[in-house]
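Target protein
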Amino acid sequence: MKKFGLVSAFSILNSQFSILNSQFSILHFLNPFAIMTMAHLTTLMTQGKPQVRRQGKWELVRRLLEKGYHQEDIRKLFRLLDWMMTLPEELQLSFEEQLSRYQQERRMPLLSHMEIRGMQRGIKQGTLQNARESVLEVLTVRFEVVPSEMIEAINQIEDVSVLKQLHRQAIAISSMVEFQQLLSQS
């Protein structure tokens, strides 16, 4: 009886990976399916090799940015590629720094100016809300009940520096009446 060795599809792919990679670099890279196929193969081939995966991810993203796709297509493909080719946190941060430098050098942002402004507005709103909550929390801890009109007045303040000052004063003030007077002066 003749014995046959067992060969997995993965081992065949592994031996053919360098051939696939060199052939892929020859492609014009216009087909999004080719990008995702290469990302999938790279992900398979780099299991347990995070440094190699980072390099493969970088090569794919760089090629993606250089091929002249529409901005929205780049974003969609990048999101999928980023999800597929996960990296340990330190390597992901390193990858993001390299991507940021690359984009700055070539003035090719992955995010539009409108998206960046939206994120900045979101951060500002979050900071503002956090400052409001901090003032209200100190008042609640110190005086137990905060009148609803005072809550409304604090929630109307749009200046983080004023809220920070009120927070410091709420910590040290002796009564809710005194705080109400400070609040009406702000």
The chain has a mean pLDDT of 80. The two ends are 94 Å apart (CA to CA). The CA atoms of residues 150 and 180 lie 7 Å apart. DSSP finds nine helices and no strands in the chain.
